[in-house]
Protein 1
Amino acid sequence: TEAAEAEQKCQAAQAAEAAEAAEAERQRLAAEAAEQQRQAALEAEQRRAIEEKRQLEEAAKKHEEEQAKLLRQKMEHEEEEREKARKAEEMRAMKEKQLKDELAEQERQKKQRE
């Protein structure tokens, strides 16, 4: 019976050791799974941040292109306005000269008649 008791104690010790080893393995696997989840979440956050940065850069580029387009349109409009003003001034000067010429001609004819 002593041998049986010793055998039983030995088996109990082996079972306890096996249970401890199984628990340690379970904890190791749980820690490994938690680390993998943490890594996956970190990678997903990095991908999201990269995509957000890309979208912001794209929006900034579109805004910059739109601003350049508006500036070009403004400059073209200002050039058109300057051209209109120049032509109007030419017309005014031409009419003024024509009036002066007509007045001078009238004066000349008036002096001729006298």
Protein 2
Amino acid sequence: AISSTEKEQILTEKVRDKFGKIIGDIDKDGDMMISWAEVSSMAEHKDAAETLASVNINMVDMIEIAEDFIFTGVNNQQKSLTFQQFMAMALDCRNTQTALIRDV
């Protein structure tokens, strides 16, 4: 029998693989970094919502949270995320995650 932890790892790897392809599609400048324009364009990608939903991530919520990650600092400066940073942020958006006091 497969434990719930192993199932989670398998599912996460599948999503990383699928999302790697989606990021490749939306990475307009080919820099392998994810900008705000690229995150917001996910709403138009044919596979993005389905892939995110497969791991209980609501795309609209994830895009709103990504905005907070990308626009930082006093002057609301824009930064780009690496694929690893983006995936960590996205997986933290799952509806199955429990909010911690540090998240508030």
Protein 3
Amino acid sequence: FPQRVEQLWIDLYERSYIELDDVVALQKWLEALIAMDYKFPELKPRIRNVALMGQFNYADFPNSMTQIMMWNQKMRERFQTTIAAAPFNETQLAYLEAHRI
């Protein structure tokens, strides 16, 4: 929690919303809270389940499979589970399964 608050204030400073003295004052305040063993609240994720959908009109093997692979890779950076669903043919299904999609 303290690191996220500090980063927020640094970002505000870098965009000229606040002054450097404000950042320093916040850092000293956070240090004082830590020194007195203040228990910061836990940040809980707000989003659990998300459905994102993309459209692949023509499943021509080389191009569509590359796009689906790239989409899946980007989504896995943020989400634990991704699912690709479409009217894939057997060759495409085998390709996706081989790449654990």
Protein 4
Amino acid sequence: MCAPEYRNLAHRKDIAKTYGYLDVEGLVDGEVAWWTGLTEPPEDVLNLLEYLISRYDNIEQPFRDLDGVNGNGQITLKELVEGLDSMSCKKFDEKKKAKGQKAVTGGRTKD
């Protein structure tokens, strides 16, 4: 996952223009809904998103809460686990927690 300030609109516009044949000239960040199709991410990612959306008005805030006060714009597996525990997230049982964390982090386990 990356922080909102690391979004690369120019790159996304280039992809949309090259592969989607879309007219993106003049498109500015404020006009973009930064989202993905709901059929693309794993179920555990959707469950985490559902949990966060039901508790926050702004989806960027849980990212900042998980990243920490002096965050670096990236969430490590350790930050994710500790952050969800501090939120008292019971969305995943212990068996599914490891599987869900793997799905959310794309299999990266480095802290």
